[in-house]
Amino acid sequence: MGANSNSTQKRIYMDYAAGSPVDARALEAMMPYFSDRFGNPSSMHSSGREPRKAVDDARAKVAELVNASRKEEIIFTAGGTEGNNLAVKGAAMRARKKGKHIVTSAIEHITIINVMKALQKDGFEVTTVPVNEDGIVEVGTVEEALREDTTVVSIMYANNEIGTLQPIDEIGSLLSDRSAVFHVDAVAAAGKVPINVRQSKIDLLTVSSNDLYGPKGVGAVFARDGVPLEAVVQGGGQERGLRSGSENTPGIVGFGVAAEAAKAEMGAESKRLSELRDKLIGGILDGVDDAFLNGHRTKRLPNNANFRFRYVEGESMLLNLDMMGVSVSSSSPCTSKSLQPSHVLLACGVPTEEAQSAIQLTLGKANAEDDVDRVIEILPPIVRKLREMSPFNPENLDEMRSSAGHRERHHDH
Amino acid sequence: MSANPVRRIYFDHGATTPMLPEVVEAMRPYFTERCGNASSIHSFGREAKRALEEARRNVARLINADPSDIVFTSSGTESDNLAIKGTALFEGRSAGHIITSRMEHHAVLESCANLKAAGFEVSELPITNDGFVRPEDVEEAIRKDTVLISVMMANSEIGTVQPVREIGKIAQAEGIPFHTDAVQAVGKIRVDVKKDNVDLLSLSSHKFHGPKGVGALYVKSGTRIGPILHGGGHERGLRSSTENIPGIVGLGKAAQIAARDMKDCADRMRDMRDRMIDSVLKTIPDSHLNGHPVNRLAGNAHFRFDFIEGEGLVLGLDTLGVAASTGSACSTGSLAPSHVLLAMGLRHEQAHGSLRVTLGRENTHEEVSYFLDVLPGVVSKLREISPFSNEHPNGDDEGGSSVQ
Question: Which residues of A touch B15 (CB under 8 A)?
């Protein structure tokens, strides 16, 4: 305890949504494919055969994770971003003769938002449905947005910032007798909550390996048999012509093992994490005045807590916590550089200045109860300290005005 | 069961290469304890960002580029797609003229085909019999509406090194962006984007002992290019997606090692290659070398044997423990004859009888000797059962060994 404790304190990582360590079993499985079994899966000789089989085994494991009917419905990509580009652009471009209307939501990942912008430039019309104040899309708004010429509906499974789970089953049922294809960005959800593409009537689904303890630089798109899709990367014709490029065998193998482990262990780990999450939420809301939870209290990912604290900036919170050895995030790292308030929080109706006060904690395998206890212990004093010097804090306003006046008088000299 | 279970000789470095132990070592911590996202501002993120920028410097040094001109991608294929489509389609452009060659990799040809379908015109330049694009053909093909010239640096099948510098000069004089697919060249021959007058250059990590799933595109600053993948705006907005830090670190390490060892490795490989070419052409009747005898990658030998099929040869060698290829590994399961060999003027049946041997830094003279010992037997066995060999007995007009 005490002021000098931060140097000896272990680093606490609570930013698993931004990046995760690779599962030891996954890394172990990858190693031979770096050296001994390095062959190109497209090669005809025997050094290509083993890698080809390994890629197919991994394909089956990822298929099982999302309960696809056949492993051939899985297309490996280089990550969630490429997956979202392939699924949404690929489906929209392929169907452009049938219609050019797309429906999406106001809280999608920046990838989807920017894919939609690119499609708009190409002459597509995009309807963005709102979310309620809990950060959840209401099925009725999707139904209202649908038109005769709607070809793609893209709604995320779980939000990457506030963790809210969307009514995917209901939207899937709604779309089951429509011609529009249903794409789901499940990057934040896969490996944390069970996904069943058949039951949810999903046509296209994006997953990313690192979000479930697989290596970075790998992802996949589930594309239901018969869903028309067009490639965004052309070349040698790998992945059924939908994604060219020599297969990243070690990455794919690691992804497969991680997917298998996630499927097997999800139940117990989610239970453990949601208990930690609930303790964290309770502790912070109790310990800090004017603190609020962003997103729904229970309909959220088991590892996600996202708060806002009136009168402080998320960025300062993050840096102060970092100095104390705790890594969290102020919003999605993909947009963190922009210093813009989160579009997700704004869509939930949070005022701009409050949206800038948000911090996001995403728990993972290495976190234990004492990590949560420590955050509950150190976070409230940081908030208090920041509020003491915050220009937004009404208690500071009078003092600020008088000192500003003092400075001005100084300038008169 | 393999006839020779002990020996495993890998002569297919054009398809992919094993990672060097130092490369695996460098990557390892970034899989586990250094798992941060380079866009995060906390300490884990800053650590990742530092590694990312160090790798960028190493890759830049290998091709004499400014680090800020390196864009990381997931592969050579993606780099080619980004260079070609990103330039052609820049700011909503929907028509224009592109110059490329008939011997390009599928990633280039298919990107161009995609643009053709979207309304662009594409000139595919012919190549000479020994596998070169002629700069004068490039010059002649240039039109007022030419938006891009894309000619590879070294051919993936026959290894011929193209006159990139001259083509770059022509492009520069005309103010047309010049892209070169240098996937087979980088790490093997000296590449200098400044001297070579290149605006865009694709490279791939796993072709020079780095990890798979990583590549880069050199984009000279000021080049008018837009992204093909949309998202969080990473890599100067040209390539969105959370950076694959371990992969990029591995690429950086491989680039550093390639820059250090390139000359020694190339000298050794050239010796082995020349010995191999001499011996094959001497000892096996009706055998030919595809491509130029010397102006080719140090590790590349590409043979043609009359009356037999390359697939049979690859499988026959494989049972004897030697991994080689018919050409490009990318066209999965495709038995179509190589477009490169056809472009060089070979007939279908000639193109079918080809064998590509691509050496790497770990190969030895002893392995070459073993290969030279077993190859004649494989060839003659295949000729015995070939339906073509009776019609064309050895020693006819087209017989004898030659270089083409």
Answer: 39-40, 42-43, 48, 246
Q: Provide the b/e sequence for A85-112 (b: ≥16 CB within 10 Å).
A: bbbbbbbbbbbeeebbbbbbbbbbbbbb
Between chains, do B74 and A114 touch, taking CB under 8 Å as contact? Answer: no
User: How many angstroms separate the CA of residue A6 from the nearest CA in chain B?
Assistant: 14
What mean pLDDT, rounded, does chain A reach? 92
Q: Are the Cβ atoms of B18 and A34 closer than 8 angstroms?
A: yes
- A404: pLDDT confidence band, cut at 50, 70 and 90? low
Take residue A54 and report the two structure tokens written for it: 């390994």
Cβ neighbours of B19 in A, within 8 Å = 34-35, 38
The three-state secondary structure class of B363 is coil
* Minimum CA–CA partner of A35 in chain B: B18
- Residue B399's pLDDT is what? 41
Label residue A1 by pLDDT band (50, 70, 90): very low
Task: Give dist(CA A64, CA A70) in Å, integer.
Answer: 9
What is the spatial distance between Cα B170 and Cα A166, in angstroms, rounded to a whole number? Answer: 56
Q: What is the pLDDT at residue B332? A: 47
DSSP-assigned letters across all residues of B274-318: HHHHHHHHHHSTTEEE-S-SSSB-TTEEEEEETTS-HHHHHHHHH
Instruction: Say if A75 is an interface residue toward chain B (CB within 8 Å).
Output: no
Say which CATH number the domain at A390 has: 3.90.1150.10
Looking at residue A22, what DSSP letter applies? P
Q: What is the 3-state secondary structure (H, E, C) of A121-153?
A: HCCCEEEEECECCCCCECHHHHHHHCCCCEEEE
Q: In this complex, which of B211, B230, B329 lies closest to A85 when CB atoms are compared?
A: B230
Dig out the tokens for B360 from the structure.
Answer: 């790497």
From chain B, the residues in CB contact with A47 under 8 A are 8, 10, 12, 323
Q: What is the pTM of this model?
A: 0.93
Q: Six-digit token pair at A180?
A: 């529009």
Residue A311 lies in a domain: yes
B163-176 tens-digit pLDDT: 999 999 999 999 99
Residue B66: how many other CB atoms lie within 10 Å: 14
Query: Please, what's the largest Cα pairwise distance for chain A?
Result: 86
Instruction: Tell me which DSSP letter residue A70 carries.
Output: -
For A315, which residue in chain B has the nearest alpha carbon? B41
Closest C-alpha among B330, B340, B264 to residue B302: B340
β pairing state of B178-181 and B200-204 = parallel
A27 three-state secondary structure: helix
Residue B6 is predicted with a pLDDT of 57
Mutation choice for A interface testing from B32, B37, B156 by most A CBs within 10 A:
B37
In this model, does residue B213 exceed pLDDT 60?
yes
| Claim to verify: residue A107 and residue A234 sit in the same structural domain | yes
Q: How far apart are CA A194 and CA A267, in angstroms?
A: 9
Closest-approach residue (CA) in chain B for A111:
B231
Q: What is the pLDDT of residue A403?
A: 58
Q: Which of A223, A244, A262 is the last residue of a domain?
A: A262
d(CA A48, CA A40): 5
Q: Domain residues of chain B, as ranges? A: 9-17+262-389, 21-258
Judge: domain B9-17+262-389, CATH 3.80.30.20: no
CA distances from A17 to A177, A184, A288, B37, B282 (A): 35, 18, 24, 9, 62
User: What sign has the CA pseudo-torsion B186, B191, B196, B198?
Assistant: positive
Q: Which amino acid is at A235?
A: G
Q: Is the same domain home to A162 and A38?
A: yes
Q: Does any CB of chain B come closer than 8 Å to the CB of residue A8?
A: no
The better pLDDT of the pair A184, A390 is held by A184
Q: Which tens digit of pLDDT belongs to each residue from A266-295?
A: 999 999 999 999 999 999 999 999 999 999
